[in-house]
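Archive entry: two folds, one per protein. Generate the first.
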Amino acid sequence: MCAAVVLRAQPGELVFSSDSLDANDTETRLIGHARIADGSILVTADEIHLDSKTRTLVTAIGHVVATRGATRLLAEHLTYHRTDGTFTADHVRLGVDPYYVSGDSASGTVAEITITHATLTYGEPGPWQPAMTAEKIIYAPNQRLRTENSVLGIGPMRFIPLPKLTQDIHDSFSMHLAGDGGFDSKLGAYASVDIHLPTTAGVLLGLDTALYSNRGVMIGPGGGYSRGAEGADANGFFRTGYINDRGNKGVDVLGRPVPDNRAYIEWQHAQKITDNLSLTAELNWWKDSEVLRDFRPREFFPVQEPDTFAEATYAGKNFFVSAFTRAQPNNFDVAQERLPEIRFDLMPLPVAAGIYELFNASAAVLRETEPLGGPRLQSTRLDAYYALERPIAPTEWFAFTPIVGARVTHYADTLGAIRAGNYTRTLGEVGFDTALRAAGTFDYKNTVWGIDGLRHLVTPRLSYRYIPEADKGSAQIPQIDRETFSTYLPPLGLGDTRNLDALHATNTLRLGLDNTIQTRDGTYGSRDLFSLNIASDFRFKRAPGQRPLTDLHTDVAFAPARWLSVDAYSRLTPQTGTLQEFNSGLKIHDGAAWSARVSNNFLRHQIQDYQFDGRLRVNDSFSALTRLRYDARTRRFNEQAYGVVQDLDRTWRISYVVSLYSGPRRESHFGFNVQVEAISF
């Protein structure tokens, strides 16, 4: 038997159905596959009771499912008051992916639901998912979750007290939990845990703790913060650590004994203050040069020279104004401090007759201190650059841009017998940039390589700069912004040069040739199959020992298919045919199933090494990895690493890695490491 009543006239009127209907003057009972809706809520259950007179009190029993908008609640028993929209329920479950809540009882309205003696799970409930129990969880549909008197943990193991938590349901779960452990022949057996818990909206605070059997305990506060969607308005993090190191510490980069008390502070910050104003800052204070290398190698090796700076940038309609400060809180390396530098950069601005003006200016207080007690350099500098350029493009395949400019630099502090006085240097610049563009298309198709037509782009380039007497005044100028070691071609123009305090007279012609071969991309636009870029400088004016023609720089990239990529950079002395530098890489992969990369680095008389990185996906849970580093000059493997990576419920990633090292270095010769990191929150 099936009973149904359909009242479809006005909002708030009832639509209900069931397998059977039992009604009297006081109560209507819907029995078997009972269903009732009034336009604001839909309830299904084994049995539903409805008061016959007012039809305002709804009681649902057995396998209850209540749906209101995007909110879906499951319960064993539910009472709903249609007059004010309030309800109570027993043994409830509800959630919005990826948050799931269950509890002994629930009550509330369309705006807010309170679940008592509740359990909150991030992701599908499972043994490895982040979870918490709470005395109360207050859920505002499609907005946020709040907890009271909660305990946080993983799966059934909950041991971290968390009195209150507020979580936006549109954001990932705000918790940082990472672990590391293993054995190192210098550190001994070790284990570390980083726990950062939510304290207020968008703020995580906690401790980073590590125990080393040969060294002691390192501990320090850590945390992170964010504001706005995915941290768009502001975001940052900080890490700290202190240890009284009782092990064999060795010496620092300057040959000084490493102290017993070792510590570090790291902080990074990015903020969008307004639509036009942004702020970035970074602090890296290390008590000794080796503290991160010894205890936090993953943070050390990507950036081995710590930097501390802050920069605020205002973006105008066609200009930028920035204030940049770089400080040196450490006593073991050299940094060009800027205390501060105020800079104005004008974007190319049309003046008249197709002429564009370029302008930038800065005011800086500079300082550099030798860590071993050498002389301190300091400088107060005003600098301005102005240029005019006139792009000429009579055809689409030819462009010629002459440029004329000047740079004026004033130094309030000078060098010499008497460290006083000032000096002003004025430099002029003339030159041009020109390019020829040619293209050819070919109707070639290859389904194996995914090629759908070919386009060849060829662009010969020629640039010239003449900057006479750029080295004048060098005996008086404190050389703080000077040349740094680089094997690539330096910037050619006077306005782009950063080694402002150590310039050289320039009369140079730069020759370049760019080649690119493309095909149509199956998704959008085109993709590059092959590129070959060649460049070299011809010096009409040379320093002693320099050749007229510089080394030939060649950059090659080859990606005929999405599963194959090759890249190479070389630097060759054309007069002798001597290869000075060669860096290359070959990567092959089959989606997520496996990948392999072979690469090399060669710098004559300094570096000749080869690397292999491989990864193989064994099944949904396990992958194998290998990392090899071979030094051909010493004929040894400097590093060998073999490991297994395990994914748990798509939530945690555990790496088990054995490492073997050779050669003189601070790192131990043997290590075994187990690392745990979160991958889904």
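Generate the second and append.
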Amino acid sequence: MVRMAEGAGPTGLEIRLHGLVQGVGFRPTVWRLASRLGLTGSVENCGEGVRIRAFGSSEALARFRAELLAALPPLARIARIEEQPLYEEAVPQEFRIEPSASGTLAPFVLPDLATCPECRREVFSPGRRRYLYPFTSCTRCGPRFSIVHRLPYDRERTSLAAFAPCPACLGEYRNPVDRRFHAQTIACPECGPKVWLVPEGTKNFSPLARAVELLHQGKILAVKGLGGFQLLADATCEETVTALRQRKRRPHKPLALMARDLKIVHRYCVINSEEEQALSSPAAPIVLLAAKDQSLPQAIAPGLDLLGFVLPYTPLHHLLLAEFETPLVFTSGNASGDPLCADNSEAVERLSAIADGFLVHDYAIVHPCDDSVVRFMAGEMRVLRRGRGMAPAPIPLPPGFEESQGILALGGELKSSFALIAQGQLVLSQYLGDLEQVASFARYQKELRAYLELFAFTPRCLAVDLHPEYLSTKLGRQWAEERGIKLVAVQHHHAHLGAVLAEHGHPRDGGPVLGVILDGLGYGADGAFWGGELLYGDYRSYRRLAHLKFTPLLGGTKAMREPWRNLAAQLWQAKIPLAAFPPLAAKPLALVRKLLESGLGSPLTSSCGRLFDAVAAAVGVCFESQTYEGQAAAELESLAWRSDDEKAYSLAIVPGDPWQLDPAAMWPKLLTDLERGVPKETIARRFHLGLARAWSELISHLARKLDCATVALSGGVFQNRLLLEAMTDALIRLELSVWISVRVPMNDGGLAVGQAVIAAAQEG
């Protein structure tokens, strides 16, 4: 920070603030403070953040500096402050908000913000200008990232540029005491966007009233929201929910719910204070909550004791939900596997076989964003999907990365996202779906190009997953070759570890820690498929200390969809006759044994996810198939929560280099419990506790041996709250520090963060 020179006679002070300072009412706040203190000068958005030029007495300038940070808008986040004295001969006569300047762009764009209480009251206040207006917003709420074309953030650089403010809105925009002073999204019924129904509704109804009537009639409605289209329907009508599942081709994956207020959510779920706070926050994510009973149709979340609730986060949603005393289904506007619809004509074309009507509006969504998803686990609200309301807020980088620039990480294949590093900050994109879907990969590439343009970002180093067949990896190799850019391939589980280290502020040269990474699978350094790993590493390198014992992936990718295959492989490896387990008797066991013995089409894997599939199949959960990733594991966890049994199955700890955890020892006891009629809920819980205990014992031994007191936990399997908390509690009792991601998804949605910091560290 540059301090004012003493005795040099400066006439003013320039302050540059970097961070989330655009689109939050920052410039009006500065104007009010400067005017109150009698200062002259200016404040403007620039590519680097906000620049303030203030002139006045030394006493007034000192007070301005002292009070500035305390006066910041609630949503502002300061990453860095720079100051320098000014020696102007002609001092300005007033303090002004200047038009935004151009310059070197920094990656700071505010996420979309849920409707603030003031705007909500205004929407429901008869006689107010914006009474029942569905696009009411101010400097504290409304669209941000989803509408911006270019930086700096000003109306003419957003999709709202097509709507010129009327005289009344201009008056508010120019009034320093109004909360819409310099609100870039300012609009009203006279001049702002409009909403209408497709097909056109009855003339006696407004579009919103007709939409509400359709929902009451059990119809399915596609609604254009903040980041894209959602499908809404009456969640209490089993016939409607079943029809939605059939049309959307989503047989089992849980459906999210939207409720008018917290009182209604409390009727259906057990909620703690942290979950309440998350539901009511400006990010307004979907929050996974423990269901109280089965008063809603089983088709909402088949086999699960969790419900995903979100509160209305736009005036449009508030108006739709106002009359509903029960929840509405609130799911993404797409057919299963397709990317989110964001354009009116695209939605009508792609969703006409699903929705009975469309409630649309006439401003463009520039950056489609699925809703964010969080869950309270191990004492924190943890992000499982980072989308609307969270992306692309920057993630501070740890000490040692201040000079990092030009790193672009392309993420993985499932739950894809990408990340870029510029000016000591990391930007993680929104969730972009599974790249194995053609339409999702096209959306991923389109959004990647948009980010590079938005942030004026030119990559000089590309980081990709080690898996040679990931589409993101192939794209990175193509770009590196075409553009002459350095390419860094990062091992999948090392990237998971790197993401946790970065979020916890572990310095670039902070030394290695232990990392337990449990997931479905990732390409290993030896060419095998890993998924149950204990690493010891930092950003630059790692050692593989231990892993789950390798098991054949019977039938290759088929084993990811058919859990019985993983059960057969586990029993075969435990030397238990497959025919001894009656549900397997109907399978072609001779062929199965041949594939297992030869390895033909059955590569080895240490996947913890596939072990969960095997146990689920053993207790009759998703035995034949699962229709979405992690279904068997999620239903197995729900079973386990219904038991309070404290016994645990044993897994063998096998010394070596690397060490191994062998589940074979567990299977005889588990099968005996099944034969004796032990409840499947008890069996599920004993498996969870046994797995947690085995890993904790192994970690304890190696932590003492290496004199390492920190353990990072990551990977999609740790979205299982029971396993995560059982391991966390055990490790804390062993006096180890446990690091778990909070803002970065622990699943593959956070891979790009780890790839980016690892590439940046290896450069140095």
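Annotation attached to the second fold: The longest helix spans residues 680-706. The domain at 12-97 is CATH 3.30.70.100 (Alpha-Beta Plaits).
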